């Protein structure tokens, strides 16, 4: 693991021993003998603790009695200290410190440190250790409290353990994964595990075979499992689930989740975080955005578009096939369960004709439409639902539309965008589209996305931003709208259903002329190639330059370099 800079801020009432605690660490670390009222931030030697990958900076604090120190804002972990021998100090933990930290919505892990253990009668020690008596209640009331520990700064007893606990909480935070109150893994962790399970379910059958379990172990932990290892894993799952469903030839998603839960309860939380970080999860259980930064090189201004690749479509079909022939709205939502952000993926209601259940055509059409307008958002969503693929493999770059030769290739495309431009009939048209825009439909296995714009919107938005990816225009006869972009169009027929006209456009787009007028075709053909004269002139110029260069260097006397 790479080095990580880590700040521990020590807070608590005056007199609980914060500065003495830090002095003890300084004296032990640097062989010094010092004690002052408030220390400057100090970086501790990494080799002194259990996690040398942490560059640990310890920050002392001092503040008014009912004030949270400003330094808490920069903390990665908070050490909240109290005096074991002081009842009032103990009560202040809950009545002030933890209450204030909760109300101010600090999200850092909190380690409760009971100091001055040396002042307690050793015979009564375990009974008198207050942090062990009420830690359960503190955990119930304050979710960020992860552990309680006792120490003696004077005798250097448990001081290093407190820092080790802080480092562990920083590297492997508990609260994002597990609720100490409910003794269950969190919803966010379940979402992440669902995605990971899907990625490693290579055959897409919804369960892990022994071979898939072995491949997961080898990929993440670089360790081979033998038969007894696999049997032991299944025994642990069976014990948790209290059934033998995983004793067969597979492991279910539920089995995978209870395995992680058991590991955390056995204080092996680092295993879960190793898995999460391998699959690019950050500490807040969102996927690292850096993997979504790559872009495809496309010329959108020339009408070039991006569509889902055959491989991606096959993966989406596998997801659909788990739900037999159709799936319900609830099943549709469950596919997106691992997604932790608000997505703009099209709603099933946007598909025409609308039905109660979602079939394969509708499922793929929604994805085709989504990728057509924003392949980067599509790639992010594919990643979150469990399709592990490089961006170059996820999409196919389609032809440009700035020449006749390119236009003739649009027959290979799967997705087409039809824009309706209207002046007076927007409301009527919207009613025909059930007041949902854009609408998505399928004609002869191709996906069509239909958008409505009034004339002003067309002039302000389509021409400037989206006209380059419009494949066909339907223009109301009263509109004055025109465009310099070469896009085929028809005039809106008022007495014919818009869906009938869209079906006709499906036929036009795949006819020989693709809906272009003769004038548009001639304009497109003019961009197809450079004339023979231009090519000959360019070639002659190149020969001339090469020849003159040759004679120049042949006759030039080179001076000897010093």
UniProtKB/TrEMBL annotation:
Molecular function via GO: GTP binding; GTPase activity; metal ion binding
Annotated membrane topology: Single-pass type IV membrane protein
Name of one Pfam family that matches: EF_assoc_2
Coiled coil: none
Keyword Repeat: yes
GO BP terms, alphabetized: small GTPase-mediated signal transduction
Family, as annotated: Belongs to the mitochondrial Rho GTPase family.
Identification of the protein by name: EF hand associated type-2 domain-containing protein
Organism in which the protein naturally occurs: Paramecium octaurelia
